[in-house]
Amino acid sequence: MRHADWGALSPRWAGIRSEEIDVCGTGVHYLSADAGHGGPVHLLVHPMAGSASMWLDLIAPLSALGPVIAPDLPGTLFGHTGSPHPRAAGAEPNARFLRAFTARLGIGGTITHGWSMGALVAVLFADSAPERVGRLVLAAPVLPGPIPADEVLFWRTAGRLLLAAGPPVARAVLRLAGRRLLDLKLRMYVDPGIRHDGDVIGGDPSRLSPDMTALLAAELRSAQPRRLGDAVTAFTSVLSALFVDRSPLHRAIAGVSAPALLLWGDQDGLVGEGTMGDLAGRRPDWEQRVFETYGHLLPLETPGGYVEAVGRWLARGDSPP
Asked: Which residue in 78, 136, 68, 125 sits closest to 98, CA to CA?
């Protein structure tokens, strides 16, 4: 969906605009919102295979802290940014895309927010383009954590082969069953009995605003199954970075020079205490804030709490917590 002013769909989204810009020959759609004052741009990186619209409930509250820009990454399921080459939806190509996108807009020193797998992209982006990232906020971050020795051996052998051979098979299956999978996902938003089970995302999805729930359902109804192939590319690249060859991502985590804030819900079914503990060991200078009873949809479950946490952190500057 695109709107000159998203207030046409909901008053809570008034002032948020759909815009488009050419980046290296590819049309890039992004959402933007002005702030009442100047300051660094808040750059929002959505979960891979999602779209910028997933941030809508957060954009207006966050604009109280500064201008906000949320691009659709290449290869999104719901977004409007094209996929210029077959691997464009992968994590590292997404990070390169953000470098080109911010350069095209002429923005630097951003406060970059990465959510879920978007946090992985944000870390790679911050490490490779330090002049573009002044601060880093990672929400429900899908980043490497400790794994047992037997699993390490699996991923280095059979897992590596599966990730090499699996995507072509998965794409073939999705061509046949993609619509059914989208319909199943849709039921998570319209059937309360499924939607509230919390087995995977944790927390309480009923905290999402009715406007956001309706939007996610509408986007799932209109999604094109053929675009699920890009989602396979995205997930494969993430699994490889998390389990098969972890050293590049560990180097990126070590190399980030920007101050960082980690926001995590203790009911998150995808990101566990082990991951957060591992990150604390690798980067003790990164501040962590735990939200009790919240899950993987943290930015949508409590946009007000999210903005308050970020605002307090920014107000402290570089002083320790």
From this structure: 125
Closest CA to 270 of 149, 157, 172, 139: 139
> What are the φ/ψ torsions at residue 17 (nearest 5 degrees)?
-115, 145
Non-local (6+) Cβ contacts of 284 within 8 A are: none
SS (H, E, C) 41-63: CEEEECCCCCCHHHHHHHHHHHC
Tokens 């659709």, residue located: 72
pLDDT class of 117 with cuts at 50, 70, 90? very high
Location of structure tokens 């993609």: 178
CA distances to 112, 172, 177 from 34, rounded to whole Å, are 16, 43, 41
How many Cβ atoms from other residues are within 10 Å of residue 138's Cβ? Answer: 28
| Parallel/antiparallel/unpaired status of strands 17-23 and 26-33 | antiparallel
- Which helix or strand (DSSP H or E) is residue 308 part of? helix 303-316
C-beta of residue 5 within 8 angstroms of C-beta of residue 17: yes
- pLDDT band for 207, please (50, 70, 90 cuts): very high
Helices (H), 54-201: 56-62, 91-105, 117-128, 149-154, 160-190, 192-195
Where do the domains of the chain lie?
6-316
Q: Which of 226, 219, 233 is nearest to 188 (CA)?
A: 219
Architecture of the 6-316 domain: 3-Layer(aba) Sandwich (3.40)
User: Positive or negative, the Cα torsion across 283, 284, 289, 295?
Assistant: positive
Cβ partners under 8 Å of residue 153, min gap 6:
none
pTM of the model: 0.88
